[in-house]
Amino acid sequence: MNARKPYIRPMAGWWQRNPFFIEYMVHEGTALFVLAYALELLAGLICLTQGEAAWNSYRAFVASGPMLSINLLIFAAMLYHGYTWFKIMPRTLPPMKIGGQKVAAATITAAGIAAAVGASALVFAVLWFMQRGL
Protein backbone atom coordinates (compact mmCIF):
# COMPACT_ATOMS: atom_id res chain seq x y z
CA MET A 1 0.00 0.00 0.00
CA ASN A 2 1.29 3.42 -0.92
CA ALA A 3 1.16 5.75 2.07
CA ARG A 4 0.95 9.35 1.01
CA LYS A 5 2.41 12.12 3.09
CA PRO A 6 -0.11 14.68 4.21
CA TYR A 7 0.08 17.99 2.39
CA ILE A 8 1.61 20.62 4.63
CA ARG A 9 0.53 24.11 3.81
CA PRO A 10 3.71 26.20 3.83
CA MET A 11 1.90 29.41 4.83
CA ALA A 12 -0.20 27.88 7.60
CA GLY A 13 0.45 29.71 10.86
CA TRP A 14 2.98 32.09 9.27
CA TRP A 15 2.10 34.79 11.75
CA GLN A 16 2.85 32.51 14.72
CA ARG A 17 6.53 32.16 13.80
CA ASN A 18 7.58 35.70 14.68
CA PRO A 19 6.66 37.71 17.82
CA PHE A 20 6.29 40.86 15.70
CA PHE A 21 3.68 39.17 13.51
CA ILE A 22 1.84 37.80 16.55
CA GLU A 23 1.58 41.30 17.98
CA TYR A 24 0.58 42.66 14.59
CA MET A 25 -2.23 40.09 14.20
CA VAL A 26 -3.52 40.80 17.72
CA HIS A 27 -3.42 44.50 16.84
CA GLU A 28 -5.45 43.82 13.69
CA GLY A 29 -7.89 41.70 15.73
CA THR A 30 -8.56 44.60 18.07
CA ALA A 31 -9.73 46.58 15.04
CA LEU A 32 -12.95 44.57 15.35
CA PHE A 33 -13.56 46.30 18.69
CA VAL A 34 -13.02 49.67 16.98
CA LEU A 35 -15.63 48.62 14.42
CA ALA A 36 -18.04 47.56 17.17
CA TYR A 37 -17.76 50.94 18.88
CA ALA A 38 -18.17 52.79 15.58
CA LEU A 39 -21.38 50.84 14.95
CA GLU A 40 -22.57 51.64 18.47
CA LEU A 41 -22.00 55.35 17.85
CA LEU A 42 -23.74 55.09 14.48
CA ALA A 43 -26.74 53.49 16.18
CA GLY A 44 -26.76 56.39 18.64
CA LEU A 45 -26.66 58.90 15.80
CA ILE A 46 -29.55 57.15 14.07
CA CYS A 47 -31.55 57.18 17.32
CA LEU A 48 -30.76 60.86 17.76
CA THR A 49 -32.32 61.60 14.36
CA GLN A 50 -35.46 59.65 15.25
CA GLY A 51 -36.48 61.83 18.14
CA GLU A 52 -36.29 62.15 21.88
CA ALA A 53 -37.89 58.78 22.71
CA ALA A 54 -35.45 56.83 20.52
CA TRP A 55 -32.51 58.82 21.92
CA ASN A 56 -33.60 58.17 25.51
CA SER A 57 -33.99 54.45 24.73
CA TYR A 58 -30.47 54.38 23.28
CA ARG A 59 -29.06 56.16 26.32
CA ALA A 60 -30.79 53.70 28.65
CA PHE A 61 -29.47 50.79 26.59
CA VAL A 62 -25.84 51.95 26.69
CA ALA A 63 -26.15 52.73 30.41
CA SER A 64 -27.23 49.15 31.20
CA GLY A 65 -24.86 46.87 33.08
CA PRO A 66 -24.07 44.50 30.18
CA MET A 67 -23.38 47.38 27.80
CA LEU A 68 -21.16 49.11 30.34
CA SER A 69 -19.17 45.88 30.63
CA ILE A 70 -18.95 45.53 26.85
CA ASN A 71 -17.89 49.17 26.52
CA LEU A 72 -15.21 48.66 29.16
CA LEU A 73 -13.87 45.73 27.13
CA ILE A 74 -14.06 47.82 23.95
CA PHE A 75 -12.21 50.66 25.70
CA ALA A 76 -9.42 48.34 26.83
CA ALA A 77 -9.12 46.87 23.32
CA MET A 78 -9.04 50.35 21.79
CA LEU A 79 -6.30 51.45 24.19
CA TYR A 80 -4.26 48.40 23.20
CA HIS A 81 -5.04 49.02 19.53
CA GLY A 82 -3.87 52.62 19.78
CA TYR A 83 -0.73 51.71 21.71
CA THR A 84 0.26 48.99 19.25
CA TRP A 85 -0.51 51.29 16.31
CA PHE A 86 1.96 53.84 17.63
CA LYS A 87 4.43 51.05 18.46
CA ILE A 88 4.25 49.70 14.88
CA MET A 89 4.34 53.17 13.32
CA PRO A 90 8.16 53.60 13.28
CA ARG A 91 8.45 50.39 11.25
CA THR A 92 5.97 51.59 8.67
CA LEU A 93 7.30 55.11 8.19
CA PRO A 94 10.21 55.98 5.95
CA PRO A 95 13.34 56.82 7.99
CA MET A 96 12.92 60.19 9.67
CA LYS A 97 15.84 62.51 10.22
CA ILE A 98 16.03 65.68 12.26
CA GLY A 99 19.23 67.68 12.03
CA GLY A 100 20.86 64.86 10.07
CA GLN A 101 20.23 62.35 12.87
CA LYS A 102 17.85 59.43 12.52
CA VAL A 103 14.90 59.71 14.91
CA ALA A 104 14.74 56.72 17.26
CA ALA A 105 11.74 54.40 17.04
CA ALA A 106 10.98 54.95 20.73
CA THR A 107 10.85 58.72 20.13
CA ILE A 108 8.36 58.32 17.27
CA THR A 109 6.19 56.03 19.40
CA ALA A 110 6.34 58.38 22.40
CA ALA A 111 5.52 61.40 20.23
CA GLY A 112 2.50 59.62 18.72
CA ILE A 113 1.19 58.58 22.13
CA ALA A 114 1.77 62.07 23.53
CA ALA A 115 -0.10 63.61 20.58
CA ALA A 116 -3.03 61.20 21.07
CA VAL A 117 -3.17 61.88 24.82
CA GLY A 118 -2.95 65.63 24.20
CA ALA A 119 -5.71 65.59 21.58
CA SER A 120 -7.91 63.46 23.86
CA ALA A 121 -7.33 65.84 26.77
CA LEU A 122 -8.19 68.81 24.57
CA VAL A 123 -11.45 67.22 23.38
CA PHE A 124 -12.31 66.24 26.96
CA ALA A 125 -11.63 69.80 28.19
CA VAL A 126 -13.73 71.38 25.44
CA LEU A 127 -16.65 69.03 26.16
CA TRP A 128 -16.26 69.54 29.91
CA PHE A 129 -16.45 73.33 29.60
CA MET A 130 -19.30 73.16 27.08
CA GLN A 131 -21.29 71.01 29.49
CA ARG A 132 -20.59 73.40 32.36
CA GLY A 133 -21.59 76.39 30.19
CA LEU A 134 -18.29 78.21 30.64
Automatic annotation (TrEMBL):
It holds the Pfam family Fumarate_red_C. Gene3D superfamilies: Fumarate reductase/succinate dehydrogenase, transmembrane subunit. Keywords: Cell membrane, Membrane, Transmembrane, Transmembrane helix. InterPro entries: Fumarate_red_C, SQR/QFR_C/D. The chain crosses the membrane at residues 29-48, 60-83, 103-129. This is Fumarate reductase subunit C.
